Amino acid sequence: MTPDLIKRYAAPVPRYTSYPTANHFSAAVTAEDYRRWLGELPQDAALSLYVHIPYCRELCWYCGCSTKATQRYAPVGDYLAPLFAEIEAAAALVPPGHRVTHIHWGGGSPDILKPADIRRLGTLMRSQFSFAPTAEFAVEIDPRLLSEEQADAFAEIGVNRVSIGVQDFDMAVQRSIGRMQSFETTSKAVGLFRERGIRSINVDLVYGLPRQTEESASRTLAQVLELAPDRVAVFGYAHLPDRLKHQRLIDESTLPGPVERFAQAQLIARHLTDAGYAQLGIDHFARPSDHLATGRLARNFQGYTTDQADALLGFGASAISRLPHGFAQNAVAVDDYGRRVGTDGLATARGHAMHGDDEMRASLIEQLMCEFSVSWPDLARRFGAGVEQLRREAEDLARNDADAFVDLHEDGLRVTEKGRPFVRMVCARFDPYLSAEVEQRRHALAV
Ligand SMILES: C[S@@+](CC[C@H](N)C(=O)[O-])C[C@H]1O[C@@H](n2cnc3c(N)ncnc32)[C@H](O)[C@@H]1O
Ligand code: SF4
Hints:
With 447 residues, the chain is α/β, with parallel strands linked by helices. Helix content is 38%, strand content 21%.
């Protein structure tokens, strides 16, 4: 991989956690549509539930999540009323024969909730939906907020997987991103969960942060391995200061360039695979015995998952639902969200109804992101003759593939080893919604 090649491909491109990507959603999808879609789910639908808690104690300067800083608990407590009301309104619409196979609380920082509110939210969800006995229940955790009482509450409501934000342990990096977090704080959080029988631990890391170097990433990795996580997610820092004002606090002159970013990503991947982790998709690593490594990989808004549910229902400000009919996203601003729930019960502000060849392209892009390959006979079985159009596009891609990123054969398309770090660019070639001018301002660099 030459520096010239890396620089050439360091263009902004979507992460493809959905197709079409959320910036192509529009106000054409309303709460009325979402209400009807919920009512039309199959009687025995397998459901995945996502709850968004859009609050943190302080805002990390690099943060790209939909969240707000608050030192007081009042806004968090106030948010729970519409959240509970929305959960009840949606639950009343889903078929009685459903079963919930995945639950995910994300944010923001769900561990900003008081223990009593963690229990109230967990109890409400269990009372409104039928959880499968084997359901996976995951929560995102900022270890700097976590107390023993909160860990007790999470264990009590049945949480069995936690995802802990680390990013980087290097002090110089932490100072440059406005997030101070010691190894001890992180290790204590891991211990609090393990002591309570929550054994499945994920750690989030970010590369491409200010002042990060291969050496500092290497040191962070050694410490992360001491925590023996089951999974590690490694994200490339998405620097979008035009859209995210707080990122302007970051001194751009200290950001590593694309060649350095690429080297950091490769180094982290090497460390993790040397330590016995399996690399999954573009940015996840798991112990070979972990579900993520043994099961069928899928991709949703949280990244890679084994979640194969028929529908994902999102609750809370900015949350996105994915139903067979399409996507429905709630109002992003907390007050707008609350108002909509108050008047309607639901809070859908925009979305996208799947039409034409959307479903087929979504499937192709998900397979490329998860397996780095796609099979024409497989797609044809599900989508019929329309696959011929994709095959023609793949032939065009292969004809102009001077850098040997893809391998086109009779039965399908495969991304080569060399092309894997650039798989998002390959997906983009099958995305007719993509408009260079808009995407330029919206997405992180491909490397
Ligand atoms: C909701 S946070 C995780 C839980 C908790 N709020 C915390 O930070 O500890 C989700 C993750 O997104 C990643 N992330 C946030 N902003 C990012 C950005 N601008 N670029 C890349 N990854 C980012 C971080 O790894 C972060 O841990
Ligand atoms: S990275 Fe996590 S803790 Fe930091 S502001 Fe974003 S959501 Fe909050």
